[in-house]
Task: structure prediction
Amino acid sequence: MKQAHYMVWGSIGVGKTSLINALSDTTSNPARKTQMIDYRGMAIDTPGEYAERGHLRRHLQSTAATVELILVVVDATCPETRFPPHYFLMFSQPVIGIVNKIDLATDTEVQQAAQLLRQIGVVGEIFYVSAITGSGLEKVRQFLSNYLQ
Result:
């Protein structure tokens, strides 16, 4: 099995692949949709369909056992999720939250997205970013660098 250090979870369209690209200073085809669990250097990119469908979610759960850290991404403009309350409390690894697309959201939407992360069991730090503009990414990079050294 390939070795990655962190795994990025989230629903369809929250910007998981864009976030991984921005954090690693790489690009991929913007029209490319993640179709399966994708090992991308230090990160594992996951398809939103797997997160949203309970019968596929178990594949993510078993893959999560191989990483040091889980990042859960939500879209600030659409703070909703298919994860049940407290879902991420089941993992032994630390789980941090990423509120993405802050450049497109109101302050109220950003705060609602952060509250949603807490409701689904994210007890670690929450970062506020825009994977497209780069806002807030340096804090995430610094956290990952310190945590994964």
User: Anything to note?
Assistant: The mean pLDDT is 85. The two ends are 21 Å apart (CA to CA).
